[in-house]
Specification:
single chain; 196 residues; mainly alpha; 72% helix
Length: 196
């Protein structure tokens, strides 16, 4: 792995390496030294960029939000005029990507989410970065005619998060549902909400 020296590129390299370590070794395996070693950086490079563990975790959370925005395809989401079926299809594709092509990123997210339950300063940061997707989804379901967009957004996110957790870290770890199965579940949920 080549060492990058520019500011933003170095920051991304450190954050991506931190996310990889979280997925591979868990929270205990994430150290400044481990990031330096895995990224091929001179010793102390990560500490120069993120002096404290909190700063390193915040860097990882920020990068996680950027990468997940691409995985979730926020730029690909249809407008409300496309209808519940098209929105469910887009959400299913995003969920299936997280389960398959980006499984390690999803696992790193769960590591960070659990750590945030024990670190109030990280919780606030984690929640703020996740608001980008939640706010967009809330506006979308409201424009589609939801009578309770905040509650409906929670239900959609909880359903997708529950499925991803079960298939990445839970009892269904060996059974990844097909895109068609994820699509069917999301269509049932979303269409049921909008009828009510």
């Amino acid at each position: 792995m080549s060492v990058r020296t520019e500011g933003p590129a170095r920051s991304d390299l450190v954050a991506d390496t931190a996310l990889a370590l979280l997925a591979e070794r868990g929270m205990r395996g994430l150290t400044h030294r481990a990031v330096d070693e895995l990224a091929g950086l001179p010793q102390g490079s990560t500490s120069n960029l993120a002096r404290t563990r909190q700063a390193l975790l915040e860097l990882a959370v920020r990068r996680l939000a950027d990468r997940e925005a691409r995985v979730l395809g926020l730029h690909e989401m249809p407008g409300p005029e496309a209808g519940a079926g098209s929105v469910a299809d887009a959400l299913a594709l995003a969920t299936h990507r997280a389960l398959t092509q980006h499984r390690a990123l999803t696992l790193a997210r769960y590591e960070l989410a659990l750590e945030a339950t024990r670190r109030p300063e990280l919780r606030a940061f984690f929640d703020a970065t996740g608001a980008r997707f939640r706010d967009r989804l809330t506006a979308l379901v409201e424009a589609m005619g939801s009578t309770d967009p905040t509650r409906h957004t929670l239900s959609l996110v909880a359903w997708a998060d529950g499925l991803m957790f079960s298939c990445v870290a839970g009892s269904f770890g060996a059974e990844v549902p097909s895109l068609e199965e994820v699509r069917a579940g999301l269509r049932e949920l979303l269409e049921g909400m909008l009828k009510g």
